[in-house]
Write a structure and sequence with these properties.
3 domains, four-stranded antiparallel β-sheet, alpha+beta, single chain, Receptor-associated Protein
Length: about 400
Amino acid sequence: MPTFEWKGRDRAGRAQGGVLVADSKEAVLAVLRRQQVVPITVKEKGKEIALPRFRKGIDDKTLAVFTRQFSVMIDAGLPLVQCLQILGEQQEHKAFQRIIMQVREDVESGSSLASALGKHPSAFNDLYVNMVAAGEAGGILDTILQRLAVYIEKAARLKAQVKSAMIYPVTVIAIATVVVYIILWKVIPVFATLFASLDADLPLPTRIVVALSNFIGRFWWLVFLLIGASIVAVNRYYKTKQGKMVIDRLLLKAPVVGLILRKIAVARFCRTLGTLMSAGVPLLESLDITARTSGNAVIEQAILEVRKQVEEGKTLSEPLGATQQFPPMVVHMISVGESTGALDTMLGKIAEFYEEEVDIAVAGMMKLIEPMMIFVLGVVIGGIVISMYLPMFDLISKIG
C-alpha cells in the first residue's frame, strides 16, 4: 500500500504531522478525522496533494438556506446527485459552490453523502456530518436536514445575541475613549497655555489633567502602540489553551454579561445535544460534538468531564450537576427526561426556554447599560471640564 505524509492541525490549533500507510487519500482523511485533526496537505511518494482551503467561511444563513432547500428536494423524491447539481448551480457563494460540486462528484463516484461532506470542514462541521450520517443510516435524510436547518437558524440567532450583548458596550466605550483622547490632545493644551500666561496657581485635579494632556501630546504614538500591543497580546493569549480557559472563566463570572453568556451556553448545549440525539447519534458521540461546539472552554471542559463519567456508566444528570456549570433546574429537567425516556424532547424544551431567557436578559442589559454609560461619560468628561474651570474660578475671585 502507498505511504502518505500528512500535515494538519489538532483541535487546539497546534501543527501536527506524520506518516500513514493506507489504500488511498480518502482513507488517510478518514483516519485524520477520527483523530480530530484538520488536514492541510497530504503527500504520496513525493507528490503533494493540496486539499481545498477557503479563506472565507460559509455564513450560517447560506448554510441554512442550502440545508432547507436540500431537505425539500430529497422529500420530493429527487435523486441525491441531481439535488446537489441543482443546488450547486444556483449557489451564489462561489467558494460554497465549489464545495457542493466536489461533494456531488464524490457522491456520484460512490461515496456516502456524510463522507463527502466530511472532506470539507470549512463548510460542514462534525455535527452536520454526523447527523447526515445518522439520516442516511435511518433512511430519514429529509427529516434530518430539516432539523439541521432549524438548528443552524437558531444557532445563528444565538450568535447574533452574543454579538449584540458584547458589541454595544464595547462600541460606546471605544467612542468615549476617542472623545476623551481628542479633548486631552487638542482642547486641554489651549487652557494650559492660558493658565501659563496668567501665571495661575493650578489645583491638583487641573495639574493631573494637564499632565495627561502633555503626555498624550508628546507620546501619542506610544499610546497607540500600547493599545495595539495589548490587543495582539490578549488575542494571542486567548488562542492558547490556558488563556482561553482563563478568559472564558472571567467572562462567565463578569456581572450581567456573565449571566447572559451562561444562559447562551446552556441553550446551545441543550439545542445541540437534543438535535444530535433526536437524529439517532449515540450519546457519547453527541457529548463529544457538543463539547467542541460549545464556544466556551469552561463549558467544553465540563461537558468532556460529563462524557467521561457517562462512559463509566453514570447517568447524564448526575455528573452534569457535579460540574456546577449548569443551573439546578436544567439538571433536574434532564434527570426527568432520562427517567421518562424522552431526553431529546426535554432538551429541546430547555433550549427554547433559555433562548427566550437570553432575549429578555439582552433587552434588560441594554436598558441597564444606557444610563450607566451616560453616567460614566458624564463623570469623566464633566470631571475634565470642572478641573479646567477651577483655576478660572480662583482667578475671578482674586480679580473681584
